[in-house]
Amino acid sequence: MEAPNITRVTPEIPVREYGKERLESFYETMLKIRKFERTIEENFLGGEIPGFVHLYIGEEAIAAGVMSNLTERDYIESTHRGHGHTIAKGADLNRMMAEIYGKKAGYCQGKGGSMHIADFSVGMLGANGVVGGGYNLAAGAALAQKLQGRKDISAVFFGDGASNRGTFHEAANVASVWKLPLLFVCEMNEYASTTPYRTATSVADISRRAYGYDMPAVIVDGNDVFAVHEGSKKLIDSIRAGEGPAFLECKTYRVKGHFVGDPEKYRTREEVQKNIDERDPIMLFERKATESGVFAPNELTAIQARVDAQIAAALKFARESPEPAVSDLFANLYV
Ligand SMILES: Cc1ncc(C[n+]2csc(CCOP(=O)(O)OP(=O)(O)O)c2C)c(N)n1
Ligand SMILES: [Mg+2]
User: In terms of residue numbers, what domain contains 20?
Assistant: First the structure.
């Protein structure tokens, strides 16, 4: 039985009506994420990058679609799989790459790495290595926006695994009681580390849980940037109108391992390949964009070349940035 708070949104606006600028921005954002992460993956495996890296490849349509309805004044809270959110919110690729390389020119002077990038200047409040650690920070940010009488909103991204943390229920309850301008964005990618979601999650649609907090929910195909844009717009418009928090569930699939280097013993290669072949968000966008006649294939190639140049520049910047000095080791520590 479907919970009464849930609406399933499929795209209704014809692709041509989106306008070329919006379509270019969808494509460029998704490609930036994809190419940035492919570069990281390759160079992590090549031994150039320290630490631990989780990739967002295959989930780009969620970040691009949600962020297309946010401004720099809106806040987001991200996850351990945060590069996509950070790029889509408008962070600087050079400083991101340098941080992931552990270099001094990075966002945290090279001491935070992949899971600790924040950029308040674009409303990106932070990635988070603590699963489910973002909800209550986002609720606090939304409370500040409300008390300041701003029209801005906050959004918190989280996975199917994180939806089982108690922190979700605390934040959902307080957000509902106080009618906070907060969007919950669940990235249902079918796995939490090595755990398939139905072995650990009580409901087929995680958005059912929003019913318990009197929140409207929308379910979309998270691999279709048009669906994510239209579904999130519906909820964000209602949040901006003062209607209180809302829940967006994006059905997607984690095509990469949990982290770079994951042996992936818990699923078959066929399952992964099927999702890549049939559901890749960039492929789906390219198909729709060219079928609609808005883009000729060579126009897409030009955008790809522009993004390649940006990623190459970020990589050069990161490689050439110095390591942090040993004398910096205890700078900016608060204990
Ligand atoms: C509080 C906490 N528990 C466990 C972990 C270890 N851990 C890191 S990511 C992860 C799985 C998260 O799954 P999900 O929320 O579905 O996000 P996804 O990785 O699929 O994007 C786990 C268990 C952690 N970092 N923090
Ligand atoms: Mg997951």
Answer: 6-322
